[in-house]
User: What shape does this take?
Amino acid sequence: MTTSNLIGLSPDGLKQALLDAGTPAKQLSMRARQLWNWIYVHGAGDFAAMSNLAKEFRADMAAHFSLARPEIVSEQISEDGTRKWLLRAGNEEFETVFIPDADRGTLCVSSQVGCTLNCRFCHTGTQALVRNLTPAEIVGQIMIARDRLLDWPSTAESRRITNVVMMGMGEPLYNFENVKQALLIAQDGDGLALSRRRITLSTAGVVPMIARAGAEIGCALAISLHAVRDDIRDEIVPLNRKYKIAELLEACRTYPGLSNARRITFEYVMLKGVNDSLAEARELVALIRGIPAKINLIPFNPWPNSPYACSDWEQIERFAEIVNRAGYASPVRTPRGRDIMAACGQLKSESLKMKARERARQAELAVAPFGDVNA
Assistant: This one.
C-alpha cells in the first residue's frame, strides 16, 4: 500500500489526513498536536520513536503514512566549515547549504529544481527548471540539516541553525504556495520554531507577488538587485525585462511591515567592469533613498565557463565606502564554501558528473552524523 507523507502538511491538512485514515473526529485535534510536536519539535523520523503514543496508534500511522525526508546523495564539507548536501526527491536532485558563523548558523534552502530566470552570473541559472519543490521537500531540507547537525529539539536554546534564507536553487515567488506553506511551518512556535525575523526570502523581482509575501508569510525580504540601470539589469537579470527597476523599487517601498527594524536587504553581486563603478555606487544610493534597507555586496563567485570576473577588492571597498557614507550598512559578504561550489550563485545539481569514487565517498559521509565526520 502506498503511504502519504505527513511532513509539509498544514495543521488543517494534517487533521484531514488523520480523519481520512480513520482517526475518530473527537481525537483529531489531540492527535494532530501530538504528531506535529513529534515531527517538528523532536524531528521524529519514524512513528516508533513517538514513545508517549499508544503502540496501536503508532502502528496504524505507520501503515498509512510516512515521515520521509529527501534522500542525501552526497555531503561536502568546505575548508571554512560550510556544508553542502546534494538531495534527491523522486528522480530530481537539488542542493542545500549550511553556513556556520560565530554568532549564527544560516541554512540556505532551495525552492525549485533548476530555475527559469537565467541570471547570467548565476550557475543555477544555467540549469533549466525541472519542477517546483513541494512543502515536504522544502521543510525537509531544514529537517535534514537538523538531523545532520544533531540540532533537535527545535525549541532548544543553543540551536546551530538560527537563520533560514530562501536563497538556494530557484525563484521562491514562482513557487509561492509551496514556499508559503513550508515557511509557515518553519516559523510555527510549536513546530520548527524559527523566528520570522530570522527567515529571509530572496527574489529576483517577481513584483506582483512581493506584497503577498509580506502579508501572508511575513518574513524578511531580500532583493537580488545587482544593477542600477535597466539596460544592465536586463542583461544580467533577464526578469528585469518584465518588471523594471522602478516598478520593483515601488513594490519594496510598500512592502508590508517595512520599517527601520525590518529593513529590506538589497543584494548586489560585484562584477568587474559591469556594475562596479563608483558612479553606480552613487546611483544605487539615490535609487533606494527613503527605503529602510541594507546592501549586501557580494563578490562574484566563479563557476566553470562563467562569463564574468569578480571586481577587484580595492574597487569593492571603494564602492562600499560610498554606500556607507550615505548611511546604509553595506557589509561585503565573505565568500563561503567556494571550494565545494557552495557559495552564492554556485549551486547546481550536477551529481551525474561526479566521479564514481567521489560519489561513493560522499555517500559514506552522509551516513554518519556530523560528530563522526572528519572534516
